[in-house]
């Protein structure tokens, strides 16, 4: 059974930090790109960052560049999203997703709330 389980969300003040984790199981982790998306109330889901598990290449949305860092521990089948200098606009449900060709898997999401 394919599973993506996010954790690490919570309530933090502006300027604070959080580290999200996405633990994957049920598929060949190294063959997939893993991405973080977020969805704020009343807004569309947007891509935040992604990483290739095979070569470690990364991409970031302009809104988070310099503040968020994505990393992967292939031995643990886990992807992390380190978030620093958080802003109220970062408040959203954060989802991780695994993508390879026609295959897309999603986690259940973890809430991040940044207070001003």
What percentage of the residues does DSSP assign to strands (E)? Answer: over 45%
Mass-distribution shape: globular
Return the average pLDDT rounded to an integer: 95
- Strand-and-helix sequence, N→C? EEEEEEEEEEE
Structural class by SSE content: mainly beta
Cα separation of the termini? 40 Å
Unreliably modeled segments: none
Number of helices: 0
Helix content: under 10%
Largest sheet composition: 7 strands, mixed
Number of strands: 11
Task: Note the topology.
Layout: E1 3-7, E2 10-13, E3 18-25, E4 33-39, E5 46-52, E6 58-60, E7 68-73, E8 78-83, E9 92-100, E10 103-106, E11 110-115
Parallel strand pairs: 2-11
Antiparallel strand pairs: 1-3, 3-8, 4-5, 4-9, 5-6, 7-8, 9-10, 9-11
Can you give a write-up of this model?
The chain is an all-beta fold. 0% of the residues lie in helices and 56% in strands. The chain is built from no helices and eleven strands. It has strands at 3-7, 10-13, 18-25, 33-39, 46-52, 58-60, 68-73, 78-83, 92-100, 103-106, 110-115. Strand 5 and strand 6 form a beta hairpin. The protein is globular and about 40 Å long. The mean pLDDT is 95.
Gist?
This protein has 116 residues and is mainly beta.
Features:
116 residues, 7-stranded mixed beta sheet, single chain, 4-stranded antiparallel beta sheet, 0% helix
């Amino acid at each position: 059974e394919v599973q993506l389980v996010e954790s690490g969300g919570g309530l933090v003040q502006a300027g604070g930090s959080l580290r999200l984790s996405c633990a994957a199981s049920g598929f060949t982790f190294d063959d997939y790109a893993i991405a973080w998306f977020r969805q704020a109330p009343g807004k569309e889901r947007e891509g935040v960052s992604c990483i290739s598990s095979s070569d470690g290449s990364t991409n970031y949305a302009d809104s988070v560049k310099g503040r968020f860092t994505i990393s992967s521990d292939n031995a643990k089948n886990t992807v992390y999203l380190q978030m620093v200098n958080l802003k109220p606009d970062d408040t959203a449900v954060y989802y991780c997703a695994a993508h390879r060709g026609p295959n897309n898997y999603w986690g259940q999401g973890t809430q991040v709330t940044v207070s001003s």
